[in-house]
Amino acid sequence: MRKLSRLLLSLAALGLPWVIAACYGTLWKYSKDGRVIDATTQAGIQGIEVDCNKNGAIQSSEYSDTNGQVFLGYDIPCDTLTARDTRDTDGATLQLYETTTIPFDPNADTFTIRMAPKAQP
């Protein structure tokens, strides 16, 4: 009986977001795929925070995955996209890359943010 309960609970947990989306629509009106890369090596950078900014306010924010890919959802097209290195290890912020801001193009299918490595002291 316990296994059946767990199975039903798992199925409900997996299916509930689909039911909500079907009834009420998705969370965001628009979305755009992008990539955050190292400006020198062109390799994807994991864990970079990407903000969708409109009139100086953050509309939405997401983090890049292991390949530097990021999926950004938004209701109002942004003015700019800002990529910030907010990663930390044991409470110490790494900040290996300079904060980078690019103009937002609502007509482009994707975006790429090239981040320059920070000069090491």
Low-pLDDT regions? none
What is the CATH topology descriptor?
Answer: Immunoglobulin-like
> CATH superfamily, please?
Immunoglobulins
Class inferred from helices and paired strands: alpha+beta
Q: What's the main sheet like?
A: 4 strands, antiparallel
Q: What fraction, in percent, of the residue positions are helical?
A: 10-25%
In CATH, the architecture is: Sandwich
Describe this structure in words.
With 121 residues, the protein is an alpha+beta fold. The protein has one domain: Immunoglobulins (Immunoglobulin-like, Sandwich). It has one helix spanning 2-24, and strands at 30-38, 48-54, 57-63, 69-74, 80-85, 88-89, 92-93, 100-103, 110-115. Strands 3-2-5-8 form a four-stranded antiparallel sheet, with no helix packed on it. Strand 2 and strand 3 (57-63) form a beta hairpin. The longest helix has 23 residues, at 2-24. The chain is globular. The chain starts with a helix and ends in a 6-residue tail after the last strand.
